[in-house]
Design goal:
The chain has about 120 residues and is an alpha+beta fold. The protein has helices at about 5-20, 80-90; strands spanning about 25-35, 35-45, 55-60, 70-75, 90, 95-100, 110-115. The protein has one domain (about 5-115). It contains two helices and seven strands; from the N terminus they run αββββαβββ.
């Protein structure tokens, strides 16, 4: 099973530190299997909605070497996230080469393709 390597996990920890500075927010994180790979994710929530849904979910998918190759983003303000990513072509310092808005079963989501 493909898993994120040490460097990729360090990048995710740095990103979580950035998002944890947002006022009145909390971060929850974990991993989930997806076919032949293990995805890491974190959810950004408002403190008032601890038991409710997330504001945004950020999910990171590895390649064979464990490098981050895809970042999936769900939740509120998805169109604004898309514009921001397309304008900068980076996500928290991670260079991107493509960003697409996909129609999900319930809600749309973004796929950010990471330059490797």
């Amino acid at each position: 099973m493909k898993r994120l390597n040490r460097e990729s996990r360090a990048k995710i920890r740095q990103i979580i530190q950035i998002f944890s500075k947002i006022p009145n927010s909390i971060i929850s994180q974990g991993e989930m299997p997806d076919n032949d790979r293990m995805l890491a994710y974190f959810d950004l929530k408002h403190k008032e909605q601890i038991n409710g849904g997330f504001i945004n979910r950020f999910m990171f998918a590895p390649n064979e070497e464990g490098d981050i190759v895809y970042i999936y983003i769900w939740g509120k303000g998805i169109e604004q996230h898309q514009v921001s990513l397309l304008n900068q072509m980076t996500f928290c310092g991670i260079p991107l080469y493509k960003v697409t808005l996909e129609e999900g079963i319930i809600d749309p989501y973004l796929i950010a393709y990471v330059e490797t």
